């Protein structure tokens, strides 16, 4: 363990199975720390951590915090009345926020942090895979699994550390990257930000944390990102590299050509045209890859080598991940839960589809639904038909009057064919009944809607066998 992480030699993680927490726990376990933790349920992620030597309890109880614990690591999702958090305070054990733990892990490495309202996980993953493909063996911490449980993080021997930087609770203010990416800036996380101006100020603070002489890679196409660029351009010791299809972009996207579930991308970088393949569909994923390319070049990686290596990226779990096919219907999982993400994924799938595009959407958070129901409804109108489930509350308590009906009403006003389904268990049969051969069916949302994919496939297979 290095000095920056001296209080993490025996950490206890509350909610260790979460996407962000499990990655940090994995890196610490591999570095030799005595890791313990708890989570609300068993999962493949929990099993993967146990295989690394971590002690993981199911359920939360004060006695789960072992003697000798050096610190208790929490995320913003952990409630103040959690019994393990209360036990830590009673026993005088330091409580460390997840972002502080990640900042400690990045100490002594060349840090590359990926920020933005959407696209962080994909772009971080692209960089991690491509740099690994080039033999640079980076460390990384990502908010999603690349190909298997526990693949959201890696302790590498190389000097680079690639991290997803979360703006939702301002925790990305803790990092001091050599290179930072900002993909887009939009109002989200309404429980923590009251206005778009607060969002801009938060991203400005993040950019201010880039080390002197470092680089900001930022979108030239997104209005919010362009506003951020205008605010930070000219800062002493900061190099700004803009990327996108805009004519004034420093790294300009000349074309994105759909090839089924892949895209052929051509960019103009330092006066030279460079073409490469992205093994996921959609223009927005292609632009994520170009941001990754520019960031890697800022770290000194040769552009041609990195462009070729980006072709090794084949996706992240839950980011347009093919779950299977039955009765001629492909079921694809999408993590999209903000209207911009929803529209982008639906546009991407539309490019790849030969038949209809169907969606089962589970809204995520009452606060997000309250603020963005109209935009979510308009996004669903891009599908040929959709089924909307009840809101997944996650960490929030209900808000009176805020239900998925707000989204359904907005979708219908936008001309969408939309059906409400309040019984989660009944959804697979309903969707299997709607689908027909040639359709693409998306399970969409950040909650447990992902669990419906295998059940939908089973129903489709049963329907086909009975024909």
Please tag this protein with its features.
Protein-Tyrosine Phosphatase, Chain A, UDP-N-acetylmuramoyl-L-alanine:D-glutamate ligase, 14 helices, six-stranded mixed sheet, globular, single chain, 3 domains, 467 residues, alpha/beta, ten-stranded mixed sheet, disordered N terminus, Rossmann fold
Architecture overview:
It is a single chain. The protein is α/β, with parallel strands linked by helices and 467 residues long. The longest helix has 16 residues, at 283-298. The termini are far apart. It is 34% helix and 23% strand. It folds into 3 domains: 3-96, 3-Layer(aba) Sandwich (Rossmann fold), CATH 3.40.50; 109-310, 3-Layer(aba) Sandwich (UDP-N-acetylmuramoyl-L-alanine:D-glutamate ligase); 319-465, Protein-Tyrosine Phosphatase, Chain A (Alpha-Beta Complex). The model is unreliable at 1-5 (pLDDT under 50). It has a 10-stranded mixed beta sheet, with helices on both faces. Helix 10 runs parallel beside helix 11 (366-380) and helix 13 (427-434) packs across helix 14 (452-465). Helix 7 (223-232) links the parallel strand 11 (214-219) and strand 12. It has 14 helices and 21 strands. It has helices at 19-30, 44-51, 83-90, 98-106, 120-133, 196-208, 223-232, 283-298, 303-310, 339-352, 366-380, 405-413, 427-434, 452-465; strands at 11-14, 36-39, 55-58, 71-74, 95-97, 110-115, 139-141, 153-154, 160-164, 179-182, 214-219, 238-244, 251-259, 262-269, 272-278, 319-326, 329-334, 357-361, 385-388, 418-420, 440-444.
Rg over CA atoms, rounded to whole Å, is 22 Å
The CATH H-level superfamily of the largest domain is Mur-like, catalytic domain
Largest sheet: 10 strands, mixed
The mean pLDDT is 91
Per CATH, which architecture of the largest domain? Answer: 3-Layer(aba) Sandwich
Class derived from helix and strand content? alpha/beta
C-alpha geometry: globular
Tally the structural domains. 3
- The helical percent reads 25-40%
Poorly predicted spans: 1-5
Query: Which CATH first-tier class of the largest domain would you pick?
Result: Alpha Beta
Strand content: 15-25%
For this structure, the CATH topology of the largest domain is UDP-N-acetylmuramoyl-L-alanine:D-glutamate ligase
Termini gap: 61 Å
Number of helices: 14
Tally the beta strands. Answer: 21
Strand order of the largest sheet: 8-7-9-6-10-11-12-13-14-15
């Amino acid at each position: 363990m290095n000095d920056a992480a001296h209080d993490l030699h025996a950490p206890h993680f509350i909610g260790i199975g979460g996407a962000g927490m499990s990655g940090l726990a994995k890196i610490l376990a591999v570095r030799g720390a005595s890791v313990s933790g708890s989570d609300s349920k068993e999962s493949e992620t929990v099993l993967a951590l146990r295989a690394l030597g971590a002690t993981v309890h199911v359920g939360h109880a004060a006695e789960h915090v072992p003697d000798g614990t050096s610190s208790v690591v929490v995320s913003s999702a952990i409630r103040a009345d959690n019994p393990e958090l209360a036990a830590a305070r009673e026993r005088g054990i330091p409580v460390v926020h997840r972002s502080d733990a990640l900042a400690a892990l990045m100490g002594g490495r060349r840090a590359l942090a990926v920020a933005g309202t959407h696209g962080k996980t994909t772009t971080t993953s692209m960089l991690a895979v491509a740099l690994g493909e080039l033999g640079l063996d980076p460390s990384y911490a990502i908010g999603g699994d690349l190909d298997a449980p526990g693949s959201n993080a890696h302790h590498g021997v190389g000097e680079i550390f690639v991290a997803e930087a979360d703006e939702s609770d301002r925790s990305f203010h803790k990092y001091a990257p050599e290179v930072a990416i900002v993909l887009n800036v939009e109002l989200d996380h309404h429980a923590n930000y009251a206005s778009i101006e607060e969002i801009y100020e938060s991203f400005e603070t993040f950019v201010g944390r880039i080390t002197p002489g470092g680089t900001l890679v930022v979108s030239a196409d997104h209005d919010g990102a362009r506003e951020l660029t205008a605010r930070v351009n000219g800062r002493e010791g900061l190099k700004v590299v803009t990327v996108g299809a805009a004519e004034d972009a420093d790294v300009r996207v000349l074309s994105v050509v759909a090839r089924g579930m892949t895209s052929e991308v051509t960019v103009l970088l330092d006066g030279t045209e460079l073409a490469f393949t992205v093994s996921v569909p959609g223009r927005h994923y292609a632009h994520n890859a170009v941001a990754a390319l520019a960031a890697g070049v800022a770290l000194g990686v040769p552009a041609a080598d990195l462009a070729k290596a980006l072709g090794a990226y084949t996706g992240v779990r839950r980011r347009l991940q093919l779950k299977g096919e039955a009765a001629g219907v492909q079921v694809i999982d999408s993590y999209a839960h903000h209207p911009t993400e929803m529209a982008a994924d639906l546009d991407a799938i539309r490019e790849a589809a030969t038949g209809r595009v169907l969606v089962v959407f589970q809204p995520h958070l009452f606060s997000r639904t309250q603020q963005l129901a109209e935009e979510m409804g308009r996004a669903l109108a891009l599908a040929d038909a959709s089924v909307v489930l009840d809101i997944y509350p996650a960490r929030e308590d209900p808000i009176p009057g805020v239900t998925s009906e707000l989204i359904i009403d907005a979708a219908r006003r936008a001309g969408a064919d939309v059906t409400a389904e309040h019984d989660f268990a009944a959804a697979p049969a309903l969707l299997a009944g709607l689908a027909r051969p040639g359709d693409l069916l998306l399970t969409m949302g950040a909650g447990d809607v992902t669990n419906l994919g295998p059940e939908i496939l089973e129903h489709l297979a049963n329907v086909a066998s009975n024909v």
